């Protein structure tokens, strides 16, 4: 059998074919190595999968969340199901290190602290705050242009700008790439990203880039709170940015992984 699908009108995957799983993995690897925006035609050339089969395969992978279409619908990128698998199974040390920093920050601020890994060009939230909830937190990976963690990712992976829809969420949201680029340039220099009411009108945030064992930026840690978009709020942004800077530099290994549980169990943090 040379085809991955059973040839029916719905393009259903026939798992009994030994080559089927291998072809699926080959396509996913090709997308991962090519980066966001790779087209079906390019994938056919890279994998030698027949064009009709490739289109049916891509449709299935998008439907199941393993791939997503970039916003102009011309190409593809890895979806959330792939990045969640990678984050869960290959980044345990990185997850523990970010949680260590987040737990330390939670002991010093009355605000939400959230950690995220950058996995194959996607923002993967790995440590939501156990006490301070963030409304619509699951939207952060989709709204990279409008939140501090997303801006960190875009700053260090500029090719991802092409995958962002630049949807207007508030009157402060960047809706065209050219207005965001100068801010991204500044983020690369400082390692610090800010949000001032861009994803929600009453939300502020500071995020600091986190360098993993490779020495490259592999994630970020963010403090998120309500309010403070005016000029008078600069002191709070400065204070939180300095705290994250200190914790990221000082933290070398997750030596106190129980601090997360200790923090959440304190009487003053039970809300």
UniProtKB/TrEMBL annotation:
Listed GO MF terms: DNA binding; DNA-binding transcription factor activity
Domain annotation HTH iclR-type: ranges: 18-80
SUPFAM superfamilies: GAF domain-like, Winged helix' DNA-binding domain
Keyword terms: DNA-binding, Transcription, Transcription regulation
Any Pfam family: HTH_IclR
Gene Ontology terms: biological process: negative regulation of DNA-templated transcription
UniProt keyword DNA-binding present: yes
PANTHER family: HELIX-TURN-HELIX TRANSCRIPTIONAL REGULATOR, ICLR FAMILY, HTH-TYPE TRANSCRIPTIONAL REPRESSOR ALLR
Protein name as catalogued: DNA-binding transcriptional regulator, IclR family
Lineage, highest ranks first: Bacteria, Bacillati, Actinomycetota, Actinomycetes, Mycobacteriales
């Amino acid at each position: 059998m040379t085809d991955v699908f059973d040839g029916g009108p719905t393009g259903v995957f026939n798992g009994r074919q030994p080559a089927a799983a291998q072809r699926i993995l080959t396509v996913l690897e090709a997308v991962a190595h090519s980066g966001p925006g790779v087209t079906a035609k390019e994938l056919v050339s890279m994998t030698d999968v027949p064009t009709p089969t490739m289109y049916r395969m891509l449709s299935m992978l998008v439907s199941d969340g393993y791939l997503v279409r970039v916003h102009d619908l011309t190409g593809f990128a890895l979806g959330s199901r792939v990045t969640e698998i990678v984050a869960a199974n290959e980044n345990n040390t990185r997850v523990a290190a970010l949680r260590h920093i987040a737990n330390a920050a939670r002991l010093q601020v009355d605000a939400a602290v959230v950690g995220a890994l950058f996995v194959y060009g996607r923002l993967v939230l790995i440590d939501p705050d156990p006490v301070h909830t963030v409304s619509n937190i699951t939207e952060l990976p989709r709204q990279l242009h409008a939140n501090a963690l997303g801006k960190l990712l875009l700053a260090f992976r500029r090719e991802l700008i092409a995958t962002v829809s630049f949807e207007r969420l508030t009157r402060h949201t960047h809706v065209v790439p050219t207005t965001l680029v100068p801010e991204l340039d500044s983020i690369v220099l400082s390692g610090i990203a800010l949000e001032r009411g861009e994803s929600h009108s009453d939300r502020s945030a500071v995020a600091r880039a986190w360098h993993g064992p490779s020495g490259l930026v592999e994630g970020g840690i963010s403090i998120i709170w309500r309010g403070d978009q005016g000029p008078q709020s600069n002191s709070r942004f400065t204070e939180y940015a300095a705290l994250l800077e200190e914790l990221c530099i000082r933290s070398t290994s997750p030596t106190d992984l129980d601090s997360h549980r200790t923090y959440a169990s304190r009487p003053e943090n039970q809300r």
